[in-house]
# Entry
Amino acid sequence: MSKRKGKCIVICAGDLTLGEVPVGEEDFVIAVDGGLSYCGILNVEPDLILGDFDSVSEQEALAIEKLEQQIPERILRLPCEKDDTDTLAALKEGLKRGYTDFRIYAGTGGRFDHTLANIQCLIYLKNRGATGYLVDGTGMMLIIKNEAVHFQAGLEGYLSLFSLVEESRGITIEGMKYSLEHAVIRNDFPVGISNEFIGEAAAIAVEDGTLVCMIAYT
# Structure
């Protein structure tokens, strides 16, 4: 499957903390289970509705059944008992269709285990050559693995880094309030919390390791 130019936008059933989701003509929108109700709030038309539908309302369940009869290619019904979470199944579907740039909305909040599962989904994408962002109304999360990530000048807010492996090595931070050069961040000491953007172009590099980068805008 060739790479797609647009983004795969995945709307989940966590906390919805924003009022709009930008969708371009080349983007592909997947509503995940109860995230279908958020599509109505956001005025977004999903290209695919996916899930075991255990968290949809009775009215939505009837609407899904009707769509299954009319346009079955837009519905992907999953079994309730399965290894993949609904979100991971959606990401696999996006990868299968050639997308490498993913935006996951309403994927945080609610149950802690669901949020952690979605962070692991970001690692799943990274390990398969794709990039994913967990986005909410106050910031976003992304995975940095054996690479450098750059941020444009003018950003405001906080940035925290946490190692997802025992040790992430060779970490360099430039253009932020607290800089590092070839440092080590361990998964049992949260030294990377609450760095600050200072208006400059910034960069974070890790030579060997996997970090979750959490950004909170102000």
Notes: Residues 39 and 45 are 7 Å apart (CA to CA). The longest helix spans residues 112-126. The radius of gyration is 18 Å.
